Each structure stands twice: as C-alpha cells, then as structure tokens.
Amino acid sequence: MVHSAYDAVELVAGVPGRIEAVASHAGKLLVAASDSEGFLRGSDCSLRIYSSPASSSEGGGEIRRDGPYALERHEQRFWRRPPLAMEVSATRDLLLSLSEWVALHRLPGLETVAVVSNKTKGANVFAWDDRRGLLAVGRQKRLTVFRLDSGREFVEVKEFGVPDILKSMAWCGDNICLGIRREYMIINSMTGALTEVFSSGRIAPPLVVPLHTGELLLGKDNIGVFVDQNGKLIQDGRIIWSDTPASVVIHRPYAVARLPRHVEIRSLRAPNALVQTVVLRDVQKLVQTDNCILAALSNSVHGLLPVPIGAQIVQLTASGEFEEALALCKLLPPEDSNLRAAKESSIHIRYGHFLFDSGSYEEAMEQFSDSHVDITYVLSLYPSIVLPQTHIIGEHDKLLDMHELARESSDATDEMESYSLQLHESDDKSPLEVKKMSHNALVALVKYLQKKRSGIIERATAEVTDEVVSGAVHHSLILSEPYKPKKPNKKRAQTHTSSIAREMATVLDTSLLQALVLTAQSSGATELLKGLNYCDLKICEEFLKERSEYMVLLELYRSNEMHREALQLLNQLVEESKSEMENTDFNKKFNPQMIIEYLRPLCRSDPMLVLESSLYVLERNPSETIELFLSENVPADLVNSYLKQHAPNLQSTYLELMLSMSESGINPNLQNELVQLYLSEVLDWYKILKEEGSWTEKIYSPTRKKLISTLESNSGYNTDLLLKRLPQDALFEERAILYGKMNQHLRALSLYVHKLQMPERAVAYCDRVYEEGAQQPSKSNIYFNLLQIYLNPRKAEKEFEQKIIPVASQYPGIHKSSSAKFKGSRTGKKVVEIEGADDIRFSPSGTDSGRSDGDGDDASDGGPIMLNEALELLSQRWDRINGAQALRLLPRDTKLQDLVSFLEPLLRNSSEHLRNYLVIKNLIFRANLQVKDDLYKRRQAVVKIDGNSMCSLCNKRIANSAFAIYPNGQTLVHFVCFRESQQIKAVRGANSLKRR
C-alpha cells in the first residue's frame, strides 16, 4: 500500500541561524532560531513569524501550499536560551515555551502572560492538556502539575517524585505516561500512584506519543506499541518502522515518524502498512498542526500537506487497496455524505469484483452486500441462474450516477468504472477446477441471498398487507353507500400499490432455490418452500424436473396448493419405485406412506381430494389409510359413499377397519351397511354351494364368520331387513342371532336345539342373556324356556300361539288366514307355516314374558323329549333355575337318581339359606332386646330437688312447683317458665318467617 498521502512543500527557506523549534498559529509559522553568528546552546534565540501572502489577504487559519512564506515579524532575543519545546494553544491563543523556565505569551501580540521561574527552572520536558488547562513539567527527578488559572497565571497543583530523570511524557486522561531512561511508567495525577508498563528500547530514548482516542504509542527501538490509558497492551497494536524514529506525530489516519534519512508515513490501521516515504534528510523537528505536519530542518521548514481524501481514495482503489480506501471514506466531511456513500459503494463493488475474480467468493458477497446494490446486479454474475421476467429497474443506472458524482467531486481520473458482470475463467483451468470454483461461488451466493432475504421478504409481506387493507377499506366504502343515488362515475379512483418488493422477493427466492439445489442442499430448498416464499412456479418447476429433484418439487407444489399435481407425481414415483426394486435407495425414498403423510393435512381442507387420491394407498396400505381417515376425522358417510361408488371392493375393508379401530364404534347406518355387505357375499356363496349340493349349516367361510361375529357384537343394524333377506331353509345361526337381538329368545333357542342341533350353543345363549340381565327381575325364565323346548315342546308351541296372534294383529301385513292356520293344524304344520310367514310380523323390540318367554315358531314337531340334555342343564345351572317349576316340568317317570346332581346342591343351598335366615333373625331379635334394655336404663334417671334448687330461666326456687328437666339431666326449670319460653320461641320463629 504505497500512495501519495502527503505532498512535501518547502514553506520557509534560508532561515538565518539554526531552527530550534517550530509551531503554527492562524496560518502563520512561528520559528524559534538561534542567532546566525553562533550556534552555541547558550546564545540568545529569536522568534520569527512567517506568513503566506494569500493567508494574509484572506485571513485563513491553515497552512497553505501556494507560494513561499515570507517573514512578517522578527522578535530578537525572545529567549535567553534556545527553547527545548514550544507549543501553541489554538483555543486559548497562547504560546507555551520551555527555555530556562516555562513562559506563557499571548498571541498574536506576544505579550508575556505568565512565567513559572521557581518550579520550572532547569526543566527539560513538559506536557500540556489544552482541554483542562493542565501543565505537567519534568525537572530532574521531580514532576510538577500546574493549572492555568483564569488564563493569567499557573497555580501549582501537585508535585511528585519519580525514580529517574524524565525524558518524555504525555497526558492520558487523569494519568500521565512518563518515559524515564529505559522504562515507561504511568502516574496518577491526583494520587501519584506509579505503575510500571514495560522497558523502552536499548538504542533510542523513550518516546511517548498521545493519540486522539486517549491511547498512547510507546516507542521501543524501531517498534511502536499501542497501549491504553492504564498502560495495558492493545491487541494487534504495533507499528514496525524501517529504522528507529527520533520522534513521531499522529495525523489521522497516519502515523508520521522522523527517521535519519527520511520521513516515514504508516497507516494507523492494522497491519500498519507503509503508506509513503518522504525523502527529507536531517529533519530536526516534526510538529503536528490542524491541517498538516511541519518538518523543520536546520534552516528551512517544509510542510507535509495531505493530499485530498478523494484523491487518495482514487489512488488506493486503482492500486487494489480497497480496505484502506474504505477506511479513508470514513474521513470525508459529514456534509459530503452523498459523496461518501457514492465512493463507498463504488469501492465495495470494485472490491467485490476483484475478490470474485480471485476466487474469494464469500468475501466478494460481503462487499456486494455492503455496497447495497440490487441483488440482480450480483445474480448477473451467475449465468446458470434463471431469473424471472420482472419490471424491476436495476441499480446499474443508479450506480453510474453515483460514480459520476464521485468523479465530479475529485480531481482524479476516471477510476470508478465497474468491472464486467460476467464470470471470467481462464482457458488453462481444468474442468475439475472450473466445477469446484462454480460450486464455491454458488455456496457464497446462497449465503448472500439468505442474508438479504429477511429484509426483502418483510417488505414484500408489508406490501401485500397494505394492498389487502386498502382493498378492505375500498370494499367497506362501497357497502356503506347503499342508499346514495347512483351516478355514472367516469373516473373511479383506484389505489395502486407498487409490486417492486414482491418482484424482488420473487427474484431472490427463485434464485436461492436454484442455488441451493445446485450446491446439493436440497433439504435447505425444501425448508425454503415450507415457509413463506415467492418462488416463480414455472421456472422452479422446470428447473427441478430437469434435475429430478422430486422431493423439492413436491414441496413446491404443496406451497402453491397444487395438491392434485403433487399427488399425481407421488403416485408416479411410488409406481416407479416399485418397478425398480434393484434401486434400493429409490425404493426407500418413495413409498405409499409418503402419500398418506401428504394427504394428512388435506383431510379437513379438501376431503374429496383426499378420497380421490387415496385409492392407491387404500389398496396397498388399507390399515394406514383407514387410520388416516379416523385420526383426521374425515366424514365416515362421505368415505363410505365414495368407496361404494368408485371402489366397492374396498368398502367392506374400510368399514371393518373402522369398526375395529374406532373406540366409540360407528353409526348404525354404517353398521347396517357392513352387515348387508357381508350378507350379500354370504348369500352368493350359499347359492353356489346349494347348486353344487354341498351346503351344510356347519360350513363357515371367512365372510360368514365375520357376519356372525358382527351380528353378535353389534346392534346398530336393521334386523327386519336382514330377516327378510335370509333364506327359509338355511343360515339358521344368523337367524337365531337376529331373534336374540329382537328378544325372541324361544325362537332363537328352538333354532339352536332343533335346526342346528347345537344344545351347547343354546346353553351359551341362555348364559349370555342371564349375565346381561335382559330378563330382570326373573332372569331364570330363559333357562326355563330351554327346559320347555327339551321336555315339553308341544306346550311351548301352544304358549307361542297364544302370544304370536295378538302380536301379529298389531301389524297390518299379517292376514287373518294366517291366524286360522294356527288353530286347525298339527304342531309340525304350524311350525312350518310360521317359518314361512313374513318376518315383519315380529317387532324387533318385542320381549318374551311369562313362563314361556318366547314366540318361537321353529320348535320341534312333536318328537321325543330331550331328557338327557334337560338333566344336564339342571345339573350345570341349578342355581339359576326355579327348582319347583323345573320338577313340575319333568316327566313323572324320571328317576330320582338322575336328579341327584340337581337336587343335592339345590337342597344344600336352600338349607344354607334357611340357616342363614335363622341366624340373621336371632341377631336382629338380640339387637332389639339390647335397644329395649338401654331404653329402660335411660328412663330410670333420678333427679333430686331440694330447697336450693333454682329455675334456670327465672332464677327462683322451684320448691313444690311443677318442674321440667332438659335432656342433659341437669338443667331444671319451672314448668310454667318452660312453656312460656317455648311460646316465645314459636312467636319469634313466625316473625322471622314473615320477614323473609
């Protein structure tokens, strides 16, 4: 980094004598020079004041570069000895000098203000704090602090002793940094506390240089070290000079050092690179002024006048020192904010192009981001990214205008031309290197776009919100004028909101998605699409299809609510995955479960689309699909109707799984639908077997098992409709279950016993009815009905005839001729006629009553009784049957030995109940006697009344008056008092009731 930061201009030449010190005030040079006749240190020293002709005429206060300075005033023998130091206080118009002692003169007249001769005689160094008016003077091993009082005299504040002779010093806040021989120390100006910092160099004396920030630059041979006000090292704070400097001045943003052969200028910014070298030999003094640096030689004074900041920026930019150029932009005057912004933006752009061409893509994106250029400007560097067509005016014209502003405000040549927007690649690069470079460039683009995205999306969202609010307000205005006369409105005001923010968001999201996919960050592209995005559908769809990024494409469809297209693609991918079994990765990636997961959020918003798209997975994953319908509360009637129309083979599967998975069951209509489906399939199967002649009641197909199980476990179906569909000569078990649901238990038991010849089923049927408590309060009738079927089938049929006729009269579908058949036929004939009657004659809610608890028409036709089965029932269910009724029903020739298993536990149980009853009776009698005894004891209480017994109410003696005693046995009152108190309570109670 070498450029021209300063121009060396000779301001004064041919000064007679030797220049001892130099300063500047109001654009004039103050030069302290020894007499020309001798250069002895003890000789007198004069003060020469030089001024520029231009500054004299215009009254300027800065050192100018136009023309040599001429002698304006000469004060001979101003000092008796050459001054060791001289400093001007511009804010106070004072000249401080240290010769024999510290003297203070008023400027510009040079009147003597104050002389500190006592405490400063023989001093060799001082430090002035112009803001607070404090002066620190070092003399031998003493440090004295003075305060300028009222601008007229110095008042001593503190005096401290120091370890050795002071060589240099500078104020740093309330502290003073001291350079003592080979060591630096910090002393507190209030307390005098000393703190060692570190040792100085071996060659040069200690050098303390204050910075405008309050920090310090301490010299250590050819190294300058930065420390804070307390002497602690500052990280990355070090300047390495090319030689050991004799003195250093700070002129932001540079540090200028006086070296033996030249003046060296370095940057204050790390890494403190060399800026410029000014060849001036034997420089005696370097003095900082407001606008320049004065370099005093033995008999001439040169001014290091800074080159304008704009020109320096141009130089640095042209030489590729972009960071230094940006740092200089911060030093432009605040009033030139537009110029500074233009220069900074231009430098950031050039720096970004330079880094981009060098392969530092991420750093380049940071520069483009700082330049605030439009994202389309950056995207033009990537020809592989397809951008949507928009009406956005790029920032190129704005940038050109800013560059033009920067060029017009500086004297430099045209150095702000932008680089080419194409990505240059050398021909000698291998394809692998080109691919790597392209990947890294795209990764940097992803980070750049992600950084820019939040602000752009926020503006686009705000734009959409404004349009919605504006539209709502416009709509409300229209609705609020229903009664105003309608006049033809030729010019209707329309609120138009610019869509620039949305177009910019579309460009960004579309580019970001492409960059993510090109850098193998498909998951990031998916996450982008899951949130709010403005991706261009057409461009992204074509891009993703070309690269087979189906997961991202599915998310693109989902974000744009193109669910039908997404589901079609999913079905296609699942089919391809199934056909390409050798590609295991593909098979794992796409499976029917993905379709189910995609359908899940659509169940409530678009159930019809879910039904249309679920046929594929319903065939392959029926349980998962049904679980989806149930968990997402898809209307069951809608699902059933759709399947009935489009996939009837899946209807029963759906209803089965729904019935098994739903805890609360399904509604009666769907239960009836399921049973009807089962029955239809069973009837078709029955017809086929009947035609083949292989039908028996004990053959069970899987569907028939499901039918029987559903009939037994559910009750929401229509029994009348099912009975109509059952054949008269088959499916007796199903008919028996339906009779049981209608509480026609005798008919059901008759079918189990005589048609199916399954007595064990009949017993199980009775057990189920008994346990369910369907026959409360006489539950034993159900077993008695079974005994009647076993032992007296004719009587059971007669009782059935007596009950079926009045029941049938309630239904208009039953004809009188049907009832006549019951009276004039044998039992077997009656049974056949009843079985052939229309099943609608029997109400599904009708219940059996009386001893013959049923309306059975399927009883035996007068065959032999089933004594063995009856005895077995009695022995197994003796505790559930009325023994007396059962014995009367048994045949007279029944052997008593066959009844042992029935009578023995029955009699034992009866005896046990009798004994328990007697025990309970005796216990109750005993308790009654105890209560009576307790009553007698309590009635035997004795109350003794003597002459001292007092009434608790009136406090008078009871004597021979009638008395009453309260239940506690101790409180005695006159009977009259007691009666009056009761009357008073009654009256008070009545009054309180009236008040309420």
TrEMBL record:
InterPro entries xref list: CHCR (IPR055358), Clathrin_H-chain/VPS_repeat (IPR000547), CNH_dom (IPR001180), Vam6/VPS39/TRAP1 (IPR032914), VPS39/TGF_beta_rcpt-assoc_1 (IPR019452), VPS39/TGFA1_Znf (IPR019453)
Region (Disordered): 840-861
GO cellular component terms attached to this protein's record: cytoplasm
Top-level taxon of origin: Eukaryota
SUPFAM superfamilies reported for this sequence: Putative isomerase YbhE
Keywords from the UniProt entry: Cytoplasm, Protein transport, Transport
One annotated GO biological process: intracellular protein transport
Principal location: cytoplasm
UniProt keyword annotation of Cytoplasm present: yes
CNH domain sequence ranges: 16-293
Each CHCR repeat, start to end: 613-795
Subcellular location: Cytoplasm
PANTHER family for this protein: CNH DOMAIN CONTAINING, TRANSFORMING GROWTH FACTOR-BETA RECEPTOR-ASSOCIATED PROTEIN 1
Protein name: CNH domain-containing protein
Organism: Urochloa decumbens
